[in-house]
Amino acid sequence: MPLLPTDKMKSFILGTGSALPVRILTNAELETMVETSDEWISTRTGIKSRHISGAGEETSKLAGRAAAKALEMAGLTPLDLDLILVGTISSEMSMPSCACLVQKDLGAKNAFAYDLNAACCGFLYGLDMADSYLCRRPEMKIMLIGAETLSSRVDWQDRNTCVLFGDGAGACVVSGAAPGSGMLASKLHADGNLYKLLYMDSARGMNPALANARNQGAFIKMSGRDVFKYAVRTMAGSVKEVLAQTGIKKDEIKMIIPHQANRRIINSLLEHLAIPAEKAYVNMTKYGNTSAASIPIALDEANRKGLLEPGDILLLCAFGGGFTWGAAVIRW
Ligand code: ACO
């Protein structure tokens, strides 16, 4: 027997927000920093520019700005929040969590707060976690944020990675909704055996016994081609799983918001799934890969442009370091 009669409640997005640093770094500027070209970056990735944080634009500050906008849209105040959950791999501090810093800055004193690390899948993993809380307590108001400043975690001399990433934050206020709306299905996966395809060491420690000779600093390392291959295969698999779980047909999907890593990955994914390219929301051209922030930033943009109407079927999918991957279906 279920413990609560509310287990059929679904998590529903009440408001969205996003925040980006002021400074824009173009491909043309990158040409002066590493041996690359606008042509190479554009054709291989679809990225033309990205936002890079300056002073006062740390991960928690961007997260707080995105959260404030989401609260405003939801018509709520910081005191209404029960939980702040931040997906991030690039907070300015290891402790406290980015979520606690956001809680402090917002003055959300009724909320408990923590971060989760699922790399670029941070937002999807967080949505699934929020859904679990809301099955127990549908009245909860959860601030779910994806926020990153990966500009601080790339080696600016490594052209294989530094051209790909950008900074930013996206946020959603999530609460319980009646069955039939909100998040209809979510399927998450991980395979730690693949971690060497995409990883970031931590800061060098003070215990020589634990020193890692391989650790050249806390920078992103990546085997681009392998990541590409797994990204398409894994995301396609989880999209098929959530569609099968819900019985939703591909032609019922209004919009797909994939993790914004690379235009070619998205094109291959859509081709593989036989979903028309125009159904994908793509904004990495302006922002690059903002990791856990990419889906909520895109969601906020689509929402504020009025592209989503009540009842629309929305498909989210992501992949990232870990390896982690997954997909979710939402009725808007
Ligand atoms: N400018 C110019 N040349 C470059 C650059 C650059 N910025 N970066 C690499 N190259 C060179 C390489 O050195 C290589 O030269 P070589 O043949 O002389 O050795 C050549 O370009 C081809 O390199 P490849 O790695 O084979 O290029 P590929 O076509 O695979 O494209 C890319 C590289 C864009 C990274 C692609 O593999 C990719 O998109 N992979 C997915 C990576 C990704 O999305 N990562 C982010 C996910 S992680 C996350 O979201 C957290």
Major β-sheet strand ordering: 1-7-6-4-5
Percent in helix: 25-40%
Find the CATH topology of the largest domain: Peroxisomal Thiolase, Chain A, domain 1
What can be said about the biggest beta sheet?
5 strands, mixed
> Structural class from helices and strands?
alpha/beta
User: What is the rounded Rg?
Assistant: 19 Å
Describe this structure in words.
- Mean pLDDT is 93; it is low at 1-7.
- It is globular, with a radius of gyration of 19 Å.
- By secondary structure, the chain is of the alpha/beta class.
- It has ten helices and 13 strands.
- The strands form four sheets. A five-stranded mixed β-sheet has the order 1-7-6-4-5, with helices on both faces. It has a four-stranded mixed β-sheet with strand order 8-13-12-11, with helices on both faces. A two-stranded antiparallel ribbon has the order 2-3.
- Helix 3 packs across helix 4 and helix 7 crosses helix 8 (263-273).
- It folds into two domains: 5-179, Peroxisomal Thiolase, Chain A, domain 1, CATH 3.40.47.10; 183-331, Peroxisomal Thiolase, Chain A, domain 1 (3-Layer(aba) Sandwich), CATH 3.40.47.
- The structure holds acetyl coenzyme *A.
- Residues 36, 40-41, 44-45, 119-120, 159-160, 163-164, 198, 222, 224-225, 227-228, 261-262, 265, 289, 291, 320-321 line the site of acetyl coenzyme *A.
